[in-house]
User: Fold these one by one.
Assistant:
Number 1:
Amino acid sequence: MKKWSACPSQYCLAVRRAGAGRGLFALEPIQKGASIIEYVGPTLAEEQWLNSRNRYLFKVTEKKTIDGWNKRNIARFINHSCRPNCVIKISKGRVFVVANRRIKPGEELAYHYGKEYFNLYIKPSGCRCLRCTPKKSAGRAARASDG
Ligand SMILES: [Zn+2]
């Protein structure tokens, strides 16, 4: 798994096995508000993404859609969460994953995929994010630290 480790910005991240397949994990503390990683890929023309069944398309604006299914785009491993620790920030047509709270080493990165995507791809099979399916062993501890 070590070959998947990457430091695209100032942060070290790693792809590891997660609740929903693979996920992207922080290997070091990340400050709230920090830009962690950019969602990168070729820009698709409208007729390309309209005909695509690719789930890694990221609609940046009405005119611009990024195809995230490429090796360089480690951000594609970030899973959906209903209570995420990251948010998406779009700046000048580029897509960044930004920490919306302090993230500890070993924590999985997640952001909310958006209502449209959620209803289309996640809801039908049931959401498997940490909030919707708390681990049995960690359930009590998580609830205790919630308040
Ligand atoms: Zn969920």
Number 2:
Amino acid sequence: MKEQYASSLTQYVRRPTREVYIGEVALGGNNPIRVQSMTTVDTMDTLGSVEQTIRMVEAGCEYVRITAPSVKEAENLRNIKAELRRRGYQVPLIADIHFTPNAAELAARIVEKVRINPGNYADKKKFETIEYTDVTYQAELDRIRERFIPLIKICKEYGTAMRIGTNHGSLSDRILSRYGDTPLGMVESALEFLRICEDLNYYDIVLSMKASNTQVMVQAYRMLAQKLAEEGLQPYPFHLGVTEAGEGEDGRIKSAVGIGTLLEDGIGDTVRVSLTEAPEFEAPVAKMLIHRYATRPGHKEIKPICNLPINPYQYHRRSTTEIGNIGGHNVPRVIADISKLTALQYADLKCVGHLYSMLLDKFSMNDLGADYIYTGSHPVSFMLPNGLKEIVDYAAWLTAGQRTEHYPVLTAAEYTAGTPHHPEVNFVSNNIESLTADNLALLKADSTAVIILFTDNEHAMAELRKGIFRLMNNGILNPVIINRQYPDMLAEQLQLYASTDVGGLLLDGLGDGVVLSTEKMLERTKAEWLAVIDGLNKLSFGILQAARTRMSKTEYISCPSCGRTLFDLQETTAMIRKRTDHLKGIKIGIMGCIVNGPGEMADANYGYVGVGKGKIALYRGQNIIKKAVPEERAVDELIELIREDGNWLEPLVLEQELDNF
Ligand code: SF4
């Protein structure tokens, strides 16, 4: 394989890196993957910062980052650190710096690590496109070098580590002008600073490539690993994170899709899950994500990949033929597995987003209406709502009247036996072992076969990926549904695991649908069962959205908040969500401050940004539309802005009515 960003794409191996000490706690090398997070209280509030840090440490944080927006806060890190040590907490502290080299140079003398953002360390953002010649570009690099060298010297003198942390949303005008808003631009942004460090023989460095867009984030980390190797730079450890992931379920799914995809390939030495929640809630999620890899090295062998049929640095959806409404240009489909539920009633379909009104005697579908249900050996006895189709086991299909929009799922053996099939759509269940040359030849010639790909390998994403690569390398265009079956486990765990396994494939354009299931359903009551299916259905849509392959709900790009935050982010996010969560496909950025907010929400259609105490700026895309709206009117004015653009819809009352019914 020509391009290789990971040690192996089939065997789980951590990417070999330098070991970097952050105080007494080392990361990279043979150290476990570390957990970290960031405080949200004002850095000038010494006791508040100390107490929040302690709560974070108790929750599992191994490093704690604290913002130092100016010299004053950098100086106060001394008091925070002293009080923590006095209370017996040795946790290494990291100063988070944007725009203020003076604060960095002071903090580097106090705390164990300094994080700088190469997009704004020596550059002020003017949102200008500048034409550079090689000479003028070099002059800029020389200017940066001069500004940056003092910090490196201090770090060397005090044994302080550094993270060069690129954010997709805050690339400098210089990088944007030359490389654009791309993963390559993100990588170059860090490398410009890194080369200066190496010139001065300073190597205590950690790198990160964060973005809110999970595709960009994963591509940038991969490209960084590749570029370090290509340029003969040191193999520095990576800090992983998805910025502005949001809150609750969406924030967790999005974080797992981005971070988990990289961890699967052994990339990542420390993790921060950014949620718009109290920071002590972040570490348990990060721990749960990481925990999975403690036992991964002993997984069942997967044969190496000889020919990589995708470009891992650029998103392209795998080309497939359209079968039924699956594959081709269709959005990836959601199949809800309800096979263990018998005697299904109309009302039960609510758990898959199809709502029945007895009053109106009709169904309606919400934004999370499954496309298919899999009923196993218990076909539904009534007519399904429009838009919902059914998949049944082959034996049941043979005996259940073979209705239209009622499709069989065949095992590989049933499929190769050549028995009667549906004339239009057949689902064929395969694992990597059953994708034999004979089976592949049959599939290739069959314009009705949709492959359901499953695995029991603990290294699931890699084996499923390998299976799809086999199809691609054999010129097979049948769509693939990704099937993951999990043993009984905590819902939070299943959420992270499924997001990693399925998201990791979707980010590379692999997969035309998803079906998730979990075992031991028979031991549950029907009500519990319906709740589980409801959760898996929502999870499936959440993963597709987080991987940016199917937008079914409003997306919130909300910052995790920090000492700069100018309003209550959690409360405001909840309020905005309550008023707008029916606006399918719209992205709303909710950012605590004007310093970093606008850049970080680069992807959003609308922005709500703290601009001063009690004052909010409203954005349309990257353009500021209202500069200082009083906070109490800001949500109404945001909705007004959406309305002016013709993007506002009145919330659908039908679902609420049905809920009350
Ligand atoms: S955008 Fe949010 S997390 Fe980022 S610096 Fe501003 S307040 Fe802090």
Number 3:
Amino acid sequence: MRRFTAKLYSAIAQAVDFKSVACAFSLSVGLTCSQPSCGSYLLIQSLVAAANALLAFSRRTITQYPKQIGAALAVLLLSAGGAALAVATLAPDASELPVHQITESVTTAAVNAPADLDLQTFKLYRSEVTRSSDTAGTLLARLGVNDAAAAAFLRNDPVARLLVGRSGRSVTVETGSDNSLQKLSARWTTENDGNFRRLVIEKTAQGFQSRTETAPLAASNRLASGVIESSLFAATDEAKIPDNVATQLAEIFSSNIDFHRALRKGDRFSVVYETLEGDGEPLRAGRVLSAEFVNGGKSFQAMWFQEPLAGAATTVAQASGKGGYYTLDGQSLRRAFLASPMEFSRVTSGFKMRMHPILQTMRAHQGVDYGAPKGTPVRSVGDGTVEFAGVQNGYGNVIILKHRNNHSTVYAHLSRISVRRGQSVSQGQNIGAVGATGWATGPHLHFEFRVNGAQRDPLVIARQSESVPVSNAARPVFSKLAAENRAALAAAALVQQSSAQ
Ligand SMILES: [Zn+2]
């Protein structure tokens, strides 16, 4: 299954040529007239031929994986339909259109098209994301719909209010060749309950009708990869990877790689993650299943693994069947101490590490400064108890936590303290917020790690803390999964290489 996905991606990469055919199509329509001409008909035929070529390429697997083949054909047809609409609406180039927002009826059209392609009733598909500033008119205009009756319906229908004026909901329309609305559909998730909402507005003999439905999300796996040019988020944006997945990557490898301070240009990553889809459209990113990160030429790999629930469970983790990340040779990546007191995020990654202009003149700077906006959550790096929570001269609002084996951590310049002296805290718990109290020229977190009272590098401590291997009982299952993940990561790396060519 995963191997097939890799093949499919390379097939899509080969479809780049077909995209240029689609561009030629839009140009020809734009320069001649809106009626179908011989020229554009030939170009449509080329597209159909392209689709057939891909069909031939994947004929061996189509019986096993009809859904995936449908998706590949849909990519080709989207290029064609999208380009045609681009002429009508002066929208972005067809090559920039997302490839995932395609309904299944496109696929059917592709397969049937060679025999009887009727250009007079050619249906066009277009997707857009709603904005909070949208009115019925502006939304339909961006979707390339020119239909006064549809606009009136959207303005007055109570169900349509779930769409107009809401932001971030992806909408797909199906229009006739005269840009009249035939069908509009939208999908989104509201709660984390495994379901999505579907809104449908359809033209019927009695006029437009609307309905909403609830349907279960389907999980599927996505492969992606990228190269760091400026920042992790710039690279994940480029690879169309959701922020949630980027943050997971930084957390998974946090004890190996300092994402705040040590990312290098040319560092690269591959990732396999779950995506939750409604009608084949990705609506929410799920868990990272496996990942590789190459930092400064050194490669780190990780995979998600859940110890099977067994009667012979010997540890609490096993008994609860709690999952976690492991290296591919079976060492847990969970550590007694997190490497960073702040989650790596788009907010914290935008700030450079700050120097300490005031303290530096008074004594050698000790500890690590994390630049971040005021209010950014600060977390405990390990289990422990609160030894001090209050104000100290240069530190301003400060929390000192006591951990096992004479380890302690210090969190200074806080704008808010959320814990009390004597309280016990667990690893990752939110204890306060970044501020600029005490001797601080701007908002940042001053963090110290002390062992027997002496300053230590937090990252070194995080790496040193022991890790737990997979149990012997779970080894066979783990090894099989690790082999699959190695193959999936290799395929993910190819996705990037082929799209970079
Ligand atoms: Zn400092």
Number 4:
Amino acid sequence: MNRMLVFAIAAAGLFPFPLIRAQQPSAGIVPEIFGLPPAARAAAAAIDGERIRAHVRFLSLDLLEGRGPGKRGAELAAEYIATQFALEGVEPAGDNGTYFQKVPLVAVHTVEDKTKFTLVPATGQPIDLAYGTEIVSKDQTGQETADFEAPIIFVGYGIHAPEYHWNDYAGPDGKEIDLKGKIALVIVNEPPSNDPNFFKGNALTYYGRWTYKYEEAAGRGAVGVLVIHRTDLASYGWDVVRNSQAVEKSYLEGDPSATLRAAAWIQHDVAQRLFTLAGLGDLDKAIDLAGEPGAFHAIELPVRLRAHIESRVRRYVSSNVVGRVTGASPAEQAVVYTAHYDHLGIDPDAKGDNIYNGAADNGTGCGILLEMARSFAQSTVRPPHAVYFAAVTAEEQGLLGSQFLGMHPPIPAGHIALDLNFDMLLPVGIPRSVSLGGADRIDFWPTVQRLAHAFDLTLEPDPEPGAGHYYRSDHFSLARVGVPAFSVDQGDLFEGRTPEWGKQQVEDYEEHHYHQPSDEYRADWDFRGNAKLARFGFVLGWLASEQPKSVEWLPGDEFEVARRASRTH
Ligand SMILES: [Zn+2]
């Protein structure tokens, strides 16, 4: 029978629910895998797409008000997830014997008409910048006012990467320039390269992300950072920068890597004006030069930045929900599963439907997380080592819940073998391909490949290596504290469909529903695919836990240093 017809009849109340369940012919299949005990295989096979459906439906109800962190809806979602953990037999692994890990947050909104930035040249007239069209900024410290005047240092791409013998903070004399109390002027992105051994060729490394530049300069004591926007280098226009800064932005309270009084972007033409004022000539030529090895050194401009910044500040607390299934052996080598449960909340100013339900983003990841947790907890054979399940908050605010989890993991980060993250898995069919960006950077990769093959999943390469997707999802928060980590995402290939169809589904979702109030639960969604990915994730985690030694980054990887640091306390 046609699936749509079944749903239509079921919706009309003629058939009871179990008949829909019977529509899962291939759903229970878990391949036989070396290293996976039969009882664990049975536990994985018990993962049920209809249970994932029930979680997604509940979490995306209007009643949950879009699960905005710090708001009632997100608290209800967190309580729901904790309750499910308890019902499933998952132990609490949050604060003080609870399922909850409190995450203190501070939301900052720059008051545009009271904030003023001025370029002050050594000689000549100061130039006021127009807030919004020329500059946007956030005070990361969560204080309501800031006043300062500080020298501006042009630091090229603002990158210090010893593995590429690259240091933009070295001055004309080769010594590192002192940034304390100063403003770093930086170019967005990273030195252009086609050489895979130099900033990974076309792929974007973390050094190219503006977040890295803020953190690096903040670590050097800078009071502010001006990121120069150029559309081609940023891969998005000024309006995107401006709009994303027009709303409040949250930070972790007391985050030692977020101490800038002015985390700012300036528009390209303004940067050119600043260059002219400083007698440095053509900005684009300087950008070209800054990308050539050995051609650049940091330089102090004869121009200062004067700032008066006013912010509206709101402090609030949200929670990560953390559970654990104890392993057979107490030794190190835990596996962590993550999925964010927060979404965008309610937009009080919007007309019509103003609830951002976040059904696909990320009700689906939560449903998968809960089903994996249940299967581990109810498996008749224990996993070799402990397995943790973390539904994290404030992802949409900049991966903040997972950042807090990485800074305060339930066991030391050096003891975690692997983090697998699930985010936004459109339930439109049974996937025959997956995209596992970053999995090829760890020594577990051969097992990942073998398992994908056994699950009839083709491995799709990252379609946009230059976009830096790896640094935009929660697994990155674990990677930066050294934990081998990646997200399980589906590709374009689905059973009985053409690749074009799969691509079309994703494009349609991104255009019409992604981060919109219409990302709502649909009764015609097919959760067999989510179940398949949950089983795949279950077995991946089991095998990582079962290995004779912990999963590690491949030698030379950018996170290897963090991994080593996590083990030298
Ligand atoms: Zn998401």
